[in-house]
Amino acid sequence: MPLRIDPLRLDDIPQITAIERESFPTPWPPSAYARELDNALARYFVLRHVNEGQEERGDIVGVAGLWIFQDEAHLMTIAVRRCARGLGYGERLLLHAIETAIAAGADLFTLEVRQSNEVAQRLYRKYGLEVEGRRKNYYTDVPEDAYIMTVSGLQDEAYRQRIFALREALERRLDRQPAGSGRCP
To answer: Sheet harboring 108-114: ordered strands across?
Structure first.
């Protein structure tokens, strides 16, 4: 089943709220996403299954959002439905976020990640992000530090080539998935 990335719309928020509840101990309230739609710095998007040949919008399986200001992009959130994890969807969202940052002229990409979230850290390292610092007790639900991960040089030709190669590899991986993969009940 094909996937498509669309800009977040107001009527997507109920599905996004469900993904947030599955993904985070302290999810954002729906009103926070509604405010982000009016934020000139914000770029939020959803990953959805679509039926080929149909214009209707399918079920959302993931969400990501970033703020872009001057030459910096900051990943605000990224989440995938629990039943669709491990299929490359989080990577697809991260790649889109980085490509959005590049297209907007950003040269630095940064994010916070739980110190215990080694799966996410491996994905971020794959895209060149490295731990640059730590925010003590950043996550208050269960006090936990956050690593600040950053990659600079987004506009450099070498980094763009890296992104191109990673995109091709990811597309091959997604194309090989059996029909119906990642469809959630």
So the answer is: 3-7, 42-49, 60-69, 72-80, 108-114, 144-152, 130-139
> What gap in Å lies between CA 43 and CA 69, rounded to an integer?
11
Domains held by the chain: number: 1
Residue 182 maps to a domain: no
Specify if 184 maps to a domain: no
For β-strands 72-80 and 130-139, DSSP reports them as unpaired
Contact 179, 1 (CB under 8 A): yes
* pTM reported for the whole predicted model: 0.93
Helices and strands (H and E) in the chain: how many:
5, 7
Judge whether residue 184 has pLDDT over 90: no
Q: What percent of the chain has pLDDT over 70?
A: 94
Whether 132 shows a pLDDT value over 80: the answer reads yes
Active site positions, annotated: 112, 124
- 180 within some domain: no
Q: Where are the alpha helices (DSSP H) in the chain?
A: 13-23, 30-36, 89-103, 118-126, 157-175
On whether residue 104 sits in a domain, the answer given is yes
Containing structural domain, residue 127: 3-175
Asked whether the predicted pLDDT for residue 180 surpasses 80, the reply is: no
CATH code at 52? 3.40.630.30
pLDDT in tens, 83-100: 899 999 999 999 999 999
